[in-house]
Amino acid sequence: LEDMQDTFDFCYKVHYLPGKAGPCPLRGYAKEPQALQAKLQILDRQRREVLAQMQQLLGRSETLRDFLQQELAAWQERQRCACLGAPADTRLRPLEAWFTELGQGLFQLLKLLRALGELRLKVTYERDPLAAETPLLERRLRELLTYLLQSAFVVEQQPSMPNAFKRPLVLRTASKFSARARLLVRLHDRNHHMEAKIHIDRSGPPAGVGRDPPPPAAQPGFRKFNILTSSSKTLLAGDSPQDGLVCDFQYLTLKEQKDSRTGKGSKGSGEGPLVVTEELHLITFTLAYAYCGLELELE
Protein backbone atom coordinates (compact mmCIF):
# COMPACT_ATOMS: atom_id res chain seq x y z
CA LEU A 1 0.00 0.00 0.00
CA GLU A 2 2.82 2.38 0.83
CA ASP A 3 4.64 1.62 -2.44
CA MET A 4 1.42 2.11 -4.41
CA GLN A 5 0.84 5.43 -2.69
CA ASP A 6 4.40 6.63 -3.36
CA THR A 7 3.98 5.80 -7.05
CA PHE A 8 0.74 7.75 -7.28
CA ASP A 9 2.22 10.69 -5.38
CA PHE A 10 5.24 10.83 -7.69
CA CYS A 11 3.12 10.71 -10.85
CA TYR A 12 0.78 13.36 -9.47
CA LYS A 13 3.60 15.78 -8.69
CA VAL A 14 5.36 15.24 -12.00
CA HIS A 15 2.42 15.26 -14.40
CA TYR A 16 -0.39 17.15 -12.74
CA LEU A 17 0.37 19.57 -9.97
CA PRO A 18 -2.47 22.04 -9.22
CA GLY A 19 -1.49 25.69 -9.30
CA LYS A 20 1.17 25.17 -11.95
CA ALA A 21 1.09 27.88 -14.60
CA GLY A 22 0.07 26.52 -18.00
CA PRO A 23 -0.16 22.95 -19.19
CA CYS A 24 2.68 20.51 -18.71
CA PRO A 25 4.74 20.36 -21.92
CA LEU A 26 5.17 16.57 -21.72
CA ARG A 27 3.96 14.49 -24.66
CA GLY A 28 0.72 12.71 -23.96
CA TYR A 29 -0.20 15.07 -21.13
CA ALA A 30 -3.90 14.82 -21.98
CA LYS A 31 -3.88 11.15 -21.05
CA GLU A 32 -2.22 11.71 -17.69
CA PRO A 33 -5.34 12.82 -15.75
CA GLN A 34 -7.13 9.62 -16.77
CA ALA A 35 -4.12 7.51 -15.79
CA LEU A 36 -3.84 9.31 -12.45
CA GLN A 37 -7.54 8.82 -11.82
CA ALA A 38 -7.14 5.09 -12.46
CA LYS A 39 -4.19 4.95 -10.04
CA LEU A 40 -6.23 6.82 -7.44
CA GLN A 41 -9.12 4.36 -7.79
CA ILE A 42 -6.74 1.44 -7.30
CA LEU A 43 -5.22 3.16 -4.26
CA ASP A 44 -8.65 3.81 -2.80
CA ARG A 45 -9.73 0.21 -3.36
CA GLN A 46 -6.57 -1.06 -1.69
CA ARG A 47 -7.07 1.19 1.33
CA ARG A 48 -10.63 -0.05 1.76
CA GLU A 49 -9.46 -3.65 1.52
CA VAL A 50 -6.86 -3.11 4.26
CA LEU A 51 -9.46 -1.51 6.52
CA ALA A 52 -11.89 -4.37 5.89
CA GLN A 53 -9.20 -6.89 6.86
CA MET A 54 -8.57 -4.98 10.09
CA GLN A 55 -12.30 -4.97 10.85
CA GLN A 56 -12.33 -8.73 10.38
CA LEU A 57 -9.31 -9.21 12.65
CA LEU A 58 -10.88 -7.09 15.37
CA GLY A 59 -14.03 -9.19 15.20
CA ARG A 60 -12.00 -12.38 15.61
CA SER A 61 -10.05 -10.79 18.47
CA GLU A 62 -13.27 -9.96 20.31
CA THR A 63 -14.40 -13.58 19.94
CA LEU A 64 -11.06 -14.78 21.33
CA ARG A 65 -11.29 -12.26 24.17
CA ASP A 66 -14.69 -13.68 25.18
CA PHE A 67 -13.21 -17.18 25.15
CA LEU A 68 -10.34 -16.06 27.38
CA GLN A 69 -12.81 -14.48 29.80
CA GLN A 70 -14.50 -17.86 30.19
CA GLU A 71 -11.15 -19.55 30.80
CA LEU A 72 -10.18 -16.89 33.33
CA ALA A 73 -13.48 -17.29 35.19
CA ALA A 74 -12.86 -21.05 35.36
CA TRP A 75 -9.37 -20.44 36.78
CA GLN A 76 -10.77 -18.05 39.40
CA GLU A 77 -13.29 -20.69 40.46
CA ARG A 78 -10.48 -23.25 40.82
CA GLN A 79 -8.53 -20.73 42.92
CA ARG A 80 -11.54 -20.24 45.22
CA CYS A 81 -11.77 -24.01 45.67
CA ALA A 82 -8.05 -24.19 46.42
CA CYS A 83 -8.43 -21.48 49.09
CA LEU A 84 -11.00 -23.73 50.78
CA GLY A 85 -8.58 -26.66 50.74
CA ALA A 86 -9.78 -28.54 47.67
CA PRO A 87 -7.16 -29.96 45.30
CA ALA A 88 -7.22 -27.78 42.19
CA ASP A 89 -4.83 -26.87 39.38
CA THR A 90 -4.23 -23.12 39.67
CA ARG A 91 -1.29 -22.82 37.27
CA LEU A 92 -1.43 -19.75 35.05
CA ARG A 93 1.01 -20.76 32.30
CA PRO A 94 -1.59 -21.61 29.60
CA LEU A 95 -3.68 -18.50 30.32
CA GLU A 96 -0.56 -16.34 30.32
CA ALA A 97 0.48 -17.67 26.91
CA TRP A 98 -2.98 -17.06 25.41
CA PHE A 99 -3.37 -13.58 26.89
CA THR A 100 0.12 -12.61 25.68
CA GLU A 101 -0.49 -13.86 22.13
CA LEU A 102 -3.73 -11.89 21.86
CA GLY A 103 -2.06 -8.81 23.34
CA GLN A 104 0.76 -9.02 20.81
CA GLY A 105 -1.71 -9.23 17.94
CA LEU A 106 -3.72 -6.25 19.18
CA PHE A 107 -0.65 -4.08 19.72
CA GLN A 108 0.53 -5.02 16.22
CA LEU A 109 -2.82 -3.82 14.84
CA LEU A 110 -2.35 -0.58 16.78
CA LYS A 111 1.02 -0.05 15.12
CA LEU A 112 -0.52 -0.72 11.70
CA LEU A 113 -3.29 1.81 12.37
CA ARG A 114 -0.69 4.43 13.24
CA ALA A 115 1.18 3.60 10.03
CA LEU A 116 -2.05 4.11 8.06
CA GLY A 117 -2.45 7.48 9.76
CA GLU A 118 1.02 8.48 8.57
CA LEU A 119 0.13 7.45 5.01
CA ARG A 120 -2.99 9.60 5.13
CA LEU A 121 -0.90 12.62 6.16
CA LYS A 122 1.14 12.19 2.96
CA VAL A 123 -1.72 11.54 0.54
CA THR A 124 -5.41 12.14 1.07
CA TYR A 125 -8.38 12.93 -1.15
CA GLU A 126 -12.11 13.39 -1.10
CA ARG A 127 -13.97 10.50 0.61
CA ASP A 128 -10.70 9.05 1.85
CA PRO A 129 -11.69 5.92 3.86
CA LEU A 130 -8.70 6.37 6.16
CA ALA A 131 -10.06 9.72 7.32
CA ALA A 132 -13.46 8.30 8.26
CA GLU A 133 -12.68 4.78 9.50
CA THR A 134 -9.23 4.93 11.11
CA PRO A 135 -10.34 6.88 14.24
CA LEU A 136 -13.27 4.50 14.76
CA LEU A 137 -11.03 1.45 14.40
CA GLU A 138 -8.46 2.87 16.82
CA ARG A 139 -11.12 3.63 19.43
CA ARG A 140 -12.52 0.10 19.11
CA LEU A 141 -9.01 -1.35 19.34
CA ARG A 142 -8.11 0.69 22.43
CA GLU A 143 -11.30 -0.43 24.16
CA LEU A 144 -10.44 -4.04 23.37
CA LEU A 145 -6.88 -3.62 24.68
CA THR A 146 -8.11 -1.89 27.84
CA TYR A 147 -10.56 -4.69 28.57
CA LEU A 148 -7.92 -7.35 27.94
CA LEU A 149 -5.27 -5.71 30.15
CA GLN A 150 -7.67 -5.05 33.01
CA SER A 151 -8.71 -8.70 32.96
CA ALA A 152 -5.09 -9.84 32.71
CA PHE A 153 -4.06 -8.31 36.06
CA VAL A 154 -4.91 -11.06 38.55
CA VAL A 155 -4.14 -12.03 42.15
CA GLU A 156 -2.07 -15.16 41.64
CA GLN A 157 -1.56 -15.82 45.35
CA GLN A 158 -4.30 -14.68 47.68
CA PRO A 159 -3.17 -13.02 50.93
CA SER A 160 -1.99 -15.69 53.37
CA MET A 161 0.14 -16.06 56.48
CA PRO A 162 3.19 -18.37 56.50
CA ASN A 163 1.61 -20.70 59.05
CA ALA A 164 0.63 -23.77 57.06
CA PHE A 165 -2.44 -24.33 59.22
CA LYS A 166 -3.89 -20.93 58.31
CA ARG A 167 -5.90 -20.85 55.14
CA PRO A 168 -5.54 -18.07 52.55
CA LEU A 169 -7.73 -15.00 53.02
CA VAL A 170 -7.65 -15.36 56.83
CA LEU A 171 -5.31 -12.77 58.32
CA ARG A 172 -4.47 -11.72 61.85
CA THR A 173 -3.43 -8.23 62.84
CA ALA A 174 0.25 -7.80 63.72
CA SER A 175 1.03 -11.05 61.86
CA LYS A 176 3.00 -11.07 58.65
CA PHE A 177 1.36 -12.15 55.42
CA SER A 178 2.21 -12.23 51.71
CA ALA A 179 0.40 -11.92 48.39
CA ARG A 180 1.31 -11.95 44.71
CA ALA A 181 -0.25 -10.35 41.64
CA ARG A 182 0.57 -11.23 38.03
CA LEU A 183 0.05 -9.51 34.69
CA LEU A 184 -0.87 -12.22 32.20
CA VAL A 185 -0.01 -10.05 29.17
CA ARG A 186 3.77 -10.29 29.21
CA LEU A 187 4.38 -7.07 27.28
CA HIS A 188 6.01 -4.07 28.93
CA ASP A 189 8.19 -1.10 28.14
CA ARG A 190 11.57 -1.64 29.78
CA ASN A 191 12.10 2.12 29.91
CA HIS A 192 8.95 2.57 31.99
CA HIS A 193 8.90 1.45 35.61
CA MET A 194 5.52 -0.13 36.25
CA GLU A 195 4.72 0.44 39.90
CA ALA A 196 2.27 -1.85 41.64
CA LYS A 197 0.64 -0.89 44.93
CA ILE A 198 -1.39 -2.78 47.48
CA HIS A 199 -4.27 -1.13 49.34
CA ILE A 200 -6.80 -2.14 51.97
CA ASP A 201 -10.34 -0.79 51.80
CA ARG A 202 -9.45 1.55 48.99
CA SER A 203 -11.92 4.39 48.65
CA GLY A 204 -13.63 5.26 45.38
CA PRO A 205 -15.52 3.19 42.81
CA PRO A 206 -13.94 -0.08 41.69
CA ALA A 207 -11.95 0.13 38.46
CA GLY A 208 -11.98 -2.64 35.92
CA VAL A 209 -14.53 -4.37 33.75
CA GLY A 210 -16.86 -7.00 35.09
CA ARG A 211 -15.61 -6.73 38.67
CA ASP A 212 -17.90 -7.25 41.63
CA PRO A 213 -18.47 -4.17 43.81
CA PRO A 214 -16.39 -4.10 47.00
CA PRO A 215 -17.97 -5.07 50.30
CA PRO A 216 -18.84 -2.22 52.69
CA ALA A 217 -15.64 -2.34 54.73
CA ALA A 218 -16.45 0.83 56.65
CA GLN A 219 -19.50 -0.52 58.44
CA PRO A 220 -20.05 0.42 62.08
CA GLY A 221 -17.75 -1.63 64.30
CA PHE A 222 -15.31 -2.39 61.49
CA ARG A 223 -11.80 -1.20 62.12
CA LYS A 224 -9.61 0.67 59.65
CA PHE A 225 -6.11 -0.52 58.86
CA ASN A 226 -2.92 0.51 57.14
CA ILE A 227 -0.63 -1.91 55.30
CA LEU A 228 2.93 -1.65 56.57
CA THR A 229 6.26 -2.73 55.08
CA SER A 230 6.61 -2.13 51.36
CA SER A 231 3.13 -1.38 50.07
CA SER A 232 4.48 -0.60 46.57
CA LYS A 233 6.64 -2.66 44.22
CA THR A 234 8.07 -2.29 40.74
CA LEU A 235 6.65 -4.95 38.48
CA LEU A 236 9.58 -6.91 37.09
CA ALA A 237 10.10 -9.92 34.91
CA GLY A 238 11.30 -12.99 36.76
CA ASP A 239 14.77 -14.46 36.63
CA SER A 240 13.85 -16.33 33.45
CA PRO A 241 11.50 -15.42 30.58
CA GLN A 242 9.13 -18.15 31.78
CA ASP A 243 8.56 -16.43 35.12
CA GLY A 244 6.35 -13.70 33.66
CA LEU A 245 5.52 -10.27 35.09
CA VAL A 246 4.86 -10.56 38.82
CA CYS A 247 4.76 -8.28 41.85
CA ASP A 248 5.49 -10.25 45.00
CA PHE A 249 4.48 -8.62 48.29
CA GLN A 250 6.02 -10.28 51.32
CA TYR A 251 6.31 -9.59 55.04
CA LEU A 252 3.25 -7.31 55.07
CA THR A 253 1.42 -6.47 58.29
CA LEU A 254 -1.84 -4.75 59.12
CA LYS A 255 -1.80 -1.93 61.65
CA GLU A 256 -5.01 -0.54 62.99
CA GLN A 257 -5.61 3.17 62.57
CA LYS A 258 -6.07 5.18 65.75
CA ASP A 259 -9.34 7.05 66.04
CA SER A 260 -8.37 10.72 65.88
CA ARG A 261 -11.73 11.76 67.30
CA THR A 262 -11.02 10.33 70.73
CA GLY A 263 -10.33 12.99 73.29
CA LYS A 264 -7.22 13.43 75.41
CA GLY A 265 -7.05 10.94 78.23
CA SER A 266 -9.45 8.48 76.61
CA LYS A 267 -8.38 5.23 75.06
CA GLY A 268 -8.07 5.04 71.30
CA SER A 269 -9.41 2.14 69.28
CA GLY A 270 -5.96 0.55 69.18
CA GLU A 271 -5.33 0.70 72.91
CA GLY A 272 -6.14 -1.85 75.58
CA PRO A 273 -7.40 -5.41 75.22
CA LEU A 274 -9.67 -6.10 72.26
CA VAL A 275 -12.08 -8.96 71.88
CA VAL A 276 -11.51 -11.33 68.96
CA THR A 277 -13.61 -10.21 66.01
CA GLU A 278 -14.08 -11.33 62.44
CA GLU A 279 -14.33 -8.62 59.82
CA LEU A 280 -14.49 -8.54 56.05
CA HIS A 281 -12.07 -6.19 54.29
CA LEU A 282 -11.02 -5.69 50.68
CA ILE A 283 -7.37 -5.83 49.56
CA THR A 284 -6.74 -4.26 46.16
CA PHE A 285 -3.73 -4.20 43.82
CA THR A 286 -3.20 -1.34 41.37
CA LEU A 287 -0.67 -1.14 38.56
CA ALA A 288 0.43 1.82 36.42
CA TYR A 289 0.79 0.18 33.00
CA ALA A 290 2.38 1.71 29.90
CA TYR A 291 3.22 0.13 26.55
CA CYS A 292 3.26 1.42 22.97
CA GLY A 293 1.76 4.76 23.98
CA LEU A 294 -1.11 3.16 25.90
CA GLU A 295 -1.23 4.14 29.59
CA LEU A 296 -3.71 2.59 32.03
CA GLU A 297 -4.23 2.04 35.73
CA LEU A 298 -5.07 -1.61 36.22
CA GLU A 299 -6.84 -2.84 39.35
From TrEMBL:
<dbReference type="InterPro" id="IPR008967">
    <property type="entry name" value="p53-like_TF_DNA-bd_sf"/>
</dbReference>
<keyword id="KW-0597">Phosphoprotein</keyword>
<dbReference type="GO" id="GO:0005634">
    <property type="term" value="C:nucleus"/>
</dbReference>
<feature type="region of interest" description="Disordered">
    <location>
        <begin position="200"/>
        <end position="220"/>
    </location>
</feature>
<keyword id="KW-0238">DNA-binding</keyword>
<feature type="domain" description="STAT transcription factor DNA-binding">
    <location>
        <begin position="158"/>
        <end position="298"/>
    </location>
</feature>
<keyword id="KW-0539">Nucleus</keyword>
<dbReference type="InterPro" id="IPR001217">
    <property type="entry name" value="STAT"/>
</dbReference>
<dbReference type="Pfam" id="PF02864">
    <property type="entry name" value="STAT_bind"/>
</dbReference>
<keyword id="KW-0805">Transcription regulation</keyword>
<protein>
    <submittedName>
        <fullName>STAT2 protein</fullName>
    </submittedName>
</protein>
<feature type="domain" description="STAT transcription factor all-alpha">
    <location>
        <begin position="1"/>
        <end position="145"/>
    </location>
</feature>
<dbReference type="GO" id="GO:0003677">
    <property type="term" value="F:DNA binding"/>
</dbReference>
<dbReference type="InterPro" id="IPR012345">
    <property type="entry name" value="STAT_TF_DNA-bd_N"/>
</dbReference>
<keyword id="KW-0727">SH2 domain</keyword>
<dbReference type="Pfam" id="PF01017">
    <property type="entry name" value="STAT_alpha"/>
</dbReference>
<keyword id="KW-0963">Cytoplasm</keyword>
<dbReference type="GO" id="GO:0003700">
    <property type="term" value="F:DNA-binding transcription factor activity"/>
</dbReference>
<dbReference type="InterPro" id="IPR015988">
    <property type="entry name" value="STAT_TF_CC"/>
</dbReference>
<dbReference type="GO" id="GO:0005737">
    <property type="term" value="C:cytoplasm"/>
</dbReference>
<keyword id="KW-0804">Transcription</keyword>
<dbReference type="InterPro" id="IPR013801">
    <property type="entry name" value="STAT_TF_DNA-bd"/>
</dbReference>
<dbReference type="GO" id="GO:0007165">
    <property type="term" value="P:signal transduction"/>
</dbReference>
<dbReference type="InterPro" id="IPR013800">
    <property type="entry name" value="STAT_TF_alpha"/>
</dbReference>
